[in-house]
Amino acid sequence: MLGLLGLGAARGLSQSAGLPKRPNILVIYTDDHSYRTISAYPEAYPWVRTPAIDGLARQGVRFTAAYNGAWCMPSRATLLTGHHQFGVQSMRMEGPYPGSTYDPQKCPFWPKVFRSNGYFTAQIGKWHTGTDTGYGRDWDFQLVWNRPKYTETSANYYYDQPITYHGGKTEVLKRYSTDQYTDWAVDLIRGNGRDTRKPWYMWLCYGAVHGPYTPAERHRNEYAGVDFDTPADIFPPRPGKPEWAQRVNHWQRDRDGRPSAGGRSLNAWVRQYHQGVFGLDEGVKRLMDALKETGQRENTLVIFTSDQGLAFGQHGFLGTKIAAYDANVRSPLIFSMPGQVPEGRVCSAPVAGVDLVPTMFRWAGIELPWEMHGHDLTPLLRDPSADWPYPAMLVATGQKFGSDTDVIPEGKDAFHADVPWYVMVRDKRYKYVRPLIHDLEELYDLQEDPEELDNLAVKSRHQSTLKRMRAAAIAELRRTKAGFVDRMPTVRQVGT
Length: 496
Known about the structure:
496 residues, alpha/beta, Alkaline Phosphatase, subunit A, 11-stranded mixed sheet, 12 helices, globular
């Protein structure tokens, strides 16, 4: 369990560890953005091109196993609170989707603590955690697309977004959102609109590359003629998988037997999805150029990540997150700060979204304001090969948060987009998934089976590993005080 540091102690710790005093922190947060779309990741298709994001990886530490959340809203709630979804109190869905609300007294967001400790805080782009965006309380600067408030425009990821300026006027943005968000962020980096005497924290929340996966006009002809192998388990049956996973069937076969959906081929879907990443990569280049030109690159911790990934064909899914498979929820994660973070290194330790928050507090030298669920990643940012004793946990409880998850629902209410509630725990080699319905557990050896096709939980020779990982999941739930830990449904045994 993380202890709380006093402010003076935290600053002394930062100095003794060689951390910079009061660094700026830039979190570049993309949407539904799989690690497979970034050419720095070996799992990317060979034709993928992301030179700017790759450059960030060359200048920092790239994590191979990052799990920030199961879908857009809980991922963001985690990054604002430092808590898993079941620990985000008072957050709830309300009204038409994605309407939501929360009580800021019961669910405080930590950027206000940075503000009270001398940081200038800014948020640009997509907002998806309650109609109250926190301007003036959590944020000094905010240009935001408030999806929970303007629910009728919730699909306008690329054009025609109602943007609210600093808690005041709201105007419809006609420009391609990825480009406009970058412009605003670059302008702020250059000092326009902020107190230049203060260090700053910026959370830049792109809407790309969320559906409808609209690329900028200039990128619509990219990746012409690309090809790739069809995922092995795009169609059922999927031997050894739980019953719920057998029912996932989002694709049909066309006249030639190839997968298609909505009248479009798998190839066309994947190509368009990847085209949308070009705008993000260009944005990263412009952000890094602005930091260099203003002399701030060496004193800015840059974190590049996404809310979660997205599956296209893997395990039968079509543009779907939520499920515990890497294809669905694994995020890219890169930390970069020249002179402070090693360059060109890869870290295979599994990490979670809850770990990002205590890490940023450590680097800012600020006391943790409340008990958080994650672990400070600074030891891995010093030595990416360091022993890391902690598993990464991801808990998916549909559209329920906080104490509303204490009692696990039954039947269809225990599902979200074809996927049941679950607890996932990952160590360096194995991934364990416990469904919160009466169905089979899943266990994968990600060293031998990175595509998660062979469920070891149904094989007798792997029962000791299964028991160890099951116990690790329960221990982590208890450590983080999950209210449902003693109410989980029994798991189904093979043949029952």
